[in-house]
Amino acid sequence: MDRITATDSVDTTQEVLSAVGLSKGFGVTPTNNLIIDGLDLTIRRGEFVCVVGPSGTGKTTLLRCLSGLEPITGGDLRFDGAPIIGPPRHLGMVFQDYTRSLMPWKSVLQNVIFPLKDKGISKTEMRERAMESLAAVGLAGHESKAPWQLSGGMQQRVAIARALAYRPHLLLMDEPFASVDAQTRTELEDLVLDLHTRFGTTVLLVTHDVDEAVYLGDRVIVLGGKPSSVREVVPIGLARPRDQVETKTIPEFAESRAHVLKLIMNR
Amino acid sequence: MSRIARKGLAATTRIGVLIWLPIAILAFWIFASRNSSSFYVPKFDATMVAIGKYFTMEGFQTHVLPTVTNLLAGFVVAIFVGVVLGLIIGRVRWLHDATAPIFSFMRSIPPPALLPIAMVLLGIGPQMRIGLIAFGAVWPTLLSTIDAVRNVDSALGDIARVYAIRRWRQLLHMTLPAIGPMVMAGVRTSLLYSITLIVLSEMVGASAGLGHSVLLSQRTFQVADMWAAIIMLGLLGLALNAIFVAVENTVLRWHRQRNTERGGSWIA
Q1: How far apart, in Å, are the Cα atoms of B268 and each of A90, B89, B115, B243?
Q2: Residue A67 and residue B162: Cβ atoms within 8 Å?
Q3: What are the structural domains, with CATH classification, of chain A?
Q4: What is the pLDDT of residue A12?
């Protein structure tokens, strides 16, 4: 077992994130303008859960609510058992647009170390964690570069390394591979799977790509409806470790994929 | 032709391209003024002598130093107030909405028009000059800081919140660098205003300084001295701009380098 572990306790049945009857609306009277209503969701330690839904269902809005960046309009939302008011301390996040989430005036290493500051971690340990994470995402040797000197895929790796070094109880990913090309996308998908296996990181990944969701997840939560809620939770029975070529030839992959796709298309 | 010779020729050509016109103008000035009978045309030798006075200990202290110190004092106050106020107003929505119309008006007043009231309020000593410069030069920096702060990418704020970055660290390591390019653009304009205003304010009631010298020489018909002072002011402006560019290049090195590699700006 590697030295880096994402969680303190190994209780895999513990709920990291739980939402009951979550609703979110905007405007002067949000309750009259609900985007999300009656959404129930549970993420347990060690899981890899994907969220999919038709365009416009408010996947990003949901993620912003779950991360505490947006206040919810109604319902019960807890992180590690405690109600969420603002982003929880042990939450990490990777956004879709890496150019906007990395700081161009800092080096790759400084970007990864940044969230660790003021958290009571010694300088040596901060640096150690950062270097380990960068190595884990395959960026050893690139620490002194500026983010904009790297390719898109590499920049997203920096963002992932930053989240990893933070050792969150839950890693939220908002369409993290939408802005890279298809080939890089498969590389990054496998990278995240690898990190999940090695470090036991709990992941909640939002994506519009059904193949990706089925390939990556233990469960796929399908959103739907207006206002949106959970349409169905599809368990994925595919064995791990997964493989981009082999797993996708298994009949069960196609079945799960078809099932999810039908749910999305029927609204 | 050998490689070294070719490189030497290229370098010489490059320098030649840049300096032939200044040298031509200088030569023209020297020869044309030598036999000129016009009173207002500066004679080269006389002008050089007059300029030389500014480089003596006494000349420097009496004339160059007051100009430079008052200019810098006013300028520093202007940019400090501009940035600090800009940071506050840029972040507090109602403050921005409340001050926007007033600022719009104030920044439209040509700073020279404020000279009379500056004299009334602050007299004619150095404090008037510093005050006038501070008040006139604050606007470009203030307004570009406000703009920059308001346009800082929300993604930065999300990162700061998710990763629980302390407020001061956010300010120093995220906000300030992010607004850097836009603020520096404002600071550059503030510098220009400061130079204009020190010259202007020295023409009224000062007893020393380069601006004062220009006017005094003109009134006492010391033509060479007048031109010397004007040239000195030009050199001062040049020096200040060079320093500014050097500072900007250091502070914004990341921005410069990034923009030469790909087009884009951090401020959304």
Answers
A1: 29, 19, 38, 29
A2: yes
A3: 44-73+85-90+172-267 (3.40.50.300), 97-167 (no CATH)
A4: 42
